[in-house]
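Hi support team,

I've been running sequence recovery on a batch of backbones for a student project. Most finish fine, but this one hangs at about 90% for roughly twenty minutes before it completes. I'm not sure whether the input is malformed or the queue is just slow. I've pasted the structure tokens below so you can try to reproduce it. Let me know if you need the job ID as well.

Thanks,
M.K.
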């Protein structure tokens, strides 16, 4: 065994939280501090399990503070209509998976990281006994009360499940926001009754969009917002002993898809941005502020419309061998989805 600086540097090295291999910094341009907290967070990548993770890891208190006090929900507010459509689509996938994995009737269902509760609402409308948990702000509490939804302000570990457990749990894009996904997945298993099913969807570390756009990929985010970007290999290693893996799949979503990182889309997008910026600027200069506001809204609708159209195109062609075998089966689509069963 050699002594000296080499060993010291290995001891100081940042190790992958899953497999403990020495990991390397990635995308240094994405380094960021949590507002005025002072600590600086960076992305690291593990070559062994293909995991991207944040170092240092934000604490549970920091994470709760971010989402209850500091996170800007404007992006979601502007797209409330699309988020509702997305909830309907997600619920259809849940119904399909519930049937495919032998589920019978209407399950006792919990959505972990439920946000505004759109998905809980869909499940409730279909007659499922539905609960959602999240760190809720006043807006969400008001909305839940008004819609008669059972949303609880709680972390998963403090939440007390009914004694018989849930039959079906979903977690859409919330695991990557947590500080300790292994602990969270264990808690998901504990909420389920025996044979209960969990559906967990996260951004995909091996997505074609990430390979193409790097840290500009929409789901890369600041390191403390998405402390994790999971690969299939990493997710498999994270599964606790109370959950057994049943399915791994990969699909694009309306808001993250390979098309939007193609040169054609990027070129059209840049041109549109330039034209609308010029038009809005010109209108404001001559005092037509209302018209400028309308033009701005028009740009937003056109761009989101373009995304939705390309996504609908993807849904149509996704059964072709090129997408199905060459893209989704190789798990290169933007979203990874796993189904696991409580054992
Ligand atoms: Zn690793």
């Amino acid at each position: 065994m050699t002594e000296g600086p080499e060993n010291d540097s290995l001891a100081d090295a940042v190790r992958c939280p899953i497999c403990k291999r020495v990991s390397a910094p990635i995308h240094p341009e994405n380094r960021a501090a949590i507002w005025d907290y002072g600590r600086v967070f960076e992305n690291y990548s593990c070559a062994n399990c293909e995991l991207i993770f944040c170092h240092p890891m934000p604490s549970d208190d920091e994470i709760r503070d971010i989402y209850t006090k500091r996170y800007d929900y404007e992006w979601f507010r502007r797209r409330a209509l699309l988020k509702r459509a997305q909830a309907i689509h997600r619920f259809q996938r849940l119904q399909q998976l519930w049937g495919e994995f032998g589920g019978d009737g209407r399950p006792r269902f919990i959505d972990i990281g439920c946000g505004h509760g759109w998905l809980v609402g869909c499940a409730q409308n279909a007659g499922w006994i539905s609960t959602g948990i999240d760190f809720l702000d006043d807006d969400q509490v008001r909305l839940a009360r008004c819609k008669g939804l059972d949303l609880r302000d709680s972390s998963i570990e403090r939440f007390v499940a009914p004694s018989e457990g849930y039959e079906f749990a979903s977690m859409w894009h919330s695991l990557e926001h947590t500080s300790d996904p292994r602990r969270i997945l264990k808690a998901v298993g504990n909420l389920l009754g025996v044979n209960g099913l969990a559906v967990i969807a996260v951004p995909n570390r091996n997505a074609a969009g990430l390979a193409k756009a790097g840290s500009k990929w929409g789901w890369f985010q600041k390191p403390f917002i998405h402390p994790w970007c999971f690969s299939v290999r990493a997710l498999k290693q994270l599964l606790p002993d109370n959950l057994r893996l049943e399915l791994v799949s990969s699909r694009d979503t309306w808001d993250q898809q390979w098309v939007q990182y193609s040169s054609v889309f990027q070129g059209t997008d840049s041109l549109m941005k330039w034209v609308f910026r010029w038009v809005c600027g010109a209108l404001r200069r001559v005092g037509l502020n209302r018209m400028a506001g309308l033009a701005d809204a028009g740009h937003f609708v056109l761009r989101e419309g373009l995304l939705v159209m390309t996504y609908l195109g993807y849904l149509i062609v996704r059964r072709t061998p090129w997408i199905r075998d060459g893209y989704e089966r190789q798990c290169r689509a933007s979203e990874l989805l796993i189904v696991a069963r409580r054992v």
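--
Follow-up from support: It reproduced on our side and the slowdown came from queue contention, not your input. Confidence is low (pLDDT under 50) at residues 1-5. No action needed from you.
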